[in-house]
Amino acid sequence: MKFSIQRQTFLKYLTDVQRAISPKAAIDILHGFKLELFPDALKLTGSNADITIQTIISISDEKANLQIFEEGSVVLSANIFSEIIKKLPADELEVSVDSRLQTTITSGKAEFTILGQDADMYPHLPELSAQSSLVLSSDILKKVIDQTSIAISNQESRPLLTGIHLLITDQKLLAVATDTHRLSQRTIHLGEAAGDAHYDLVIPGKSLKELAKMLNDDHSEVEIQIADNQVLFILGHTSFYSRLLEGNYPDTKRLIPQTSETTATFNAQSLLQAIERSSLVSHAGRNNVVKFTLDVENQEVIITGNSPEVGTVEESISFSELTGKNLEISFNPDYMRDALRSLGNTETTLEFTMPLRPFILVPTEAENDFIQLITPVRTA
């Protein structure tokens, strides 16, 4: 096996594939890249228990400048191989593998020799017999992942809550994540392009976060293929496989309040800055709690952070509208901070029912399309 390639382009492909490689993989060979060289392309594969990423570098890719001298395959340690490629001195590099899997990497005056493994020992990719497929804009998919992944659970005792629930029906995509303390729900109207597609699946949050890092200007669209226990995202010449989580995701519709007793509208960025200031004190306390006091009669909103070890912060917050009943409510400021960051620089309405009932944040220009829910904290 022997080929030469442009170093920076090769490194970019390696970085994408390495997202699927875990140092904790139970199978030793999964610590490595699988390289397969064909007459017209180089195929790179990385995998762990949850995801597999495979990309194809074609000889027609001018940026790669791939030159193929001898076909073959090998598995190389991901950490060692990628670090070598990063530090090579020249723009071009050459990789040569002999019959004993001794692999020589040459660039400029530098030459490395490392031992490879037999590619035939590498696990085969799952045969994905797609039952259906859907094409989405990559920027929409990335936004959905970024906005909902903040609420996924880290508790492996409830594996379904470590994923994002995707429901596609009636030409709409509904994405939901919750850790039982907060919830993030995003709705995208797909239009006629979705046809009569109907999917109901839960994808591990860790998988989707890695996918989001790969969604950039190089890929305008993503094709999604779904089978019984696998989902495949196709981004140009790169394929991203993920297992699906088994089971029925909890019914989260009943968690979202349908009415409100008090509403307040803020600029999301201004409110975020006030939350971050209050957190300077609340983070020093054992409970990390801040309090909102919404005084409708006097048209005032006060945020208070308190820590017996440090002190107290109190601030009057600007708002554009405040209606309903007076209310005091306490919550985790980190949850509010994450929700506001996901909303961006927009006008945001907070809708409250009672001091110990969940409240929601919705951008005023996209009501019901994007909802963040936070469960308050009992302080007395």
TrEMBL record:
<dbReference type="GO" id="GO:0009360">
    <property type="term" value="C:DNA polymerase III complex"/>
</dbReference>
<feature type="domain" description="DNA polymerase III beta sliding clamp central">
    <location>
        <begin position="136"/>
        <end position="251"/>
    </location>
</feature>
<dbReference type="Pfam" id="PF02767">
    <property type="entry name" value="DNA_pol3_beta_2"/>
</dbReference>
<dbReference type="Pfam" id="PF00712">
    <property type="entry name" value="DNA_pol3_beta"/>
</dbReference>
<dbReference type="InterPro" id="IPR022637">
    <property type="entry name" value="DNA_polIII_beta_cen"/>
</dbReference>
<dbReference type="GO" id="GO:0003677">
    <property type="term" value="F:DNA binding"/>
</dbReference>
<dbReference type="GO" id="GO:0006271">
    <property type="term" value="P:DNA strand elongation involved in DNA replication"/>
</dbReference>
<comment type="subunit">
    <text>Forms a ring-shaped head-to-tail homodimer around DNA.</text>
</comment>
<dbReference type="InterPro" id="IPR022634">
    <property type="entry name" value="DNA_polIII_beta_N"/>
</dbReference>
<dbReference type="GO" id="GO:0008408">
    <property type="term" value="F:3'-5' exonuclease activity"/>
</dbReference>
<keyword id="KW-0963">Cytoplasm</keyword>
<dbReference type="GO" id="GO:0003887">
    <property type="term" value="F:DNA-directed DNA polymerase activity"/>
</dbReference>
<keyword id="KW-0548">Nucleotidyltransferase</keyword>
<dbReference type="InterPro" id="IPR001001">
    <property type="entry name" value="DNA_polIII_beta"/>
</dbReference>
<comment type="function">
    <text>Confers DNA tethering and processivity to DNA polymerases and other proteins. Acts as a clamp, forming a ring around DNA (a reaction catalyzed by the clamp-loading complex) which diffuses in an ATP-independent manner freely and bidirectionally along dsDNA. Initially characterized for its ability to contact the catalytic subunit of DNA polymerase III (Pol III), a complex, multichain enzyme responsible for most of the replicative synthesis in bacteria; Pol III exhibits 3'-5' exonuclease proofreading activity.</text>
</comment>
<keyword id="KW-0238">DNA-binding</keyword>
<feature type="domain" description="DNA polymerase III beta sliding clamp N-terminal">
    <location>
        <begin position="1"/>
        <end position="126"/>
    </location>
</feature>
<dbReference type="Pfam" id="PF02768">
    <property type="entry name" value="DNA_pol3_beta_3"/>
</dbReference>
<keyword id="KW-0239">DNA-directed DNA polymerase</keyword>
<comment type="similarity">
    <text>Belongs to the beta sliding clamp family.</text>
</comment>
<feature type="domain" description="DNA polymerase III beta sliding clamp C-terminal">
    <location>
        <begin position="253"/>
        <end position="377"/>
    </location>
</feature>
<keyword id="KW-0808">Transferase</keyword>
<dbReference type="InterPro" id="IPR046938">
    <property type="entry name" value="DNA_clamp_sf"/>
</dbReference>
<dbReference type="InterPro" id="IPR022635">
    <property type="entry name" value="DNA_polIII_beta_C"/>
</dbReference>
<dbReference type="GO" id="GO:0005737">
    <property type="term" value="C:cytoplasm"/>
</dbReference>
<protein>
    <recommendedName>
        <fullName>Beta sliding clamp</fullName>
    </recommendedName>
</protein>
<keyword id="KW-0235">DNA replication</keyword>
